[in-house]
Amino acid sequence: MTTPNKTPPGADPKQLERTGTVREIGSQAVWSLSSCKPGFGVDQLRDDNLETYWQSDGSQPHLVNIQFRRKTTVKTLCIYADYKSDESYTPSKISVRVGNNFHNLQEIRQLELVEPSGWIHVPLTDNHKKPTRTFMIQIAVLANHQNGRDTHMRQIKIYTPVEESSIGKFPRCTTIDFMMYRSVR
């Protein structure tokens, strides 16, 4: 069981992006849900609005599936949860799994959340702090607070490390971009 890295309530994971060491890659993935109430689906989960949310509609576990078209390096998963707003809909136990497809997913983190409020930063790294390479991430809500049935998740963000070169950080630049940068300097 892992305790996630919690940020102070309201702390935004976009601060990670501002450091220049990671970038958000959720838009490069295909997202699917095990179930949802009409009007409370993937669009709300990804709309950058902390007032909207995904609401499941069925039995547990509730699943968020994130599939990439190619094997992708992922470093951090950020989930926004708000116990004060969502009460029994708030997840209390989450499993994070990775793999090539639905048939070979392996759990890499299991989290116990106690009345979470704000962004929860989940490292997707091995014991040597090396980021994970995967085609698929699955977030499984195994239990909710107060034995709630359906769940709310307000936002999910996925971050990849920014590649570094000998003269600085470049977000996925090509050889041509690099040559242009050197010739301008």
From TrEMBL:
Coiled coil: none
Sequence ranges assigned to domain DOC in this UniProt record: 1-185
Residues annotated as signal peptide: none
InterPro entries: APC10/Doc1, APC_su10/DOC_dom, Galactose-bd-like_sf
Keywords: Cell cycle, Cell division, Mitosis, Ubl conjugation pathway
Domain of life: Eukaryota
UniProt keyword Repeat present: no
Pfam families, per database record: ANAPC10 (PF03256)
Record-stated family: Belongs to the APC10 family.
Role this protein plays: Component of the anaphase promoting complex/cyclosome (APC/C), a cell cycle-regulated E3 ubiquitin-protein ligase complex that controls progression through mitosis and the G1 phase of the cell cycle.
Protein name: Anaphase-promoting complex subunit 10
Protein source organism: Odocoileus virginianus
Species lineage: Eukaryota, Metazoa, Chordata, Craniata, Vertebrata
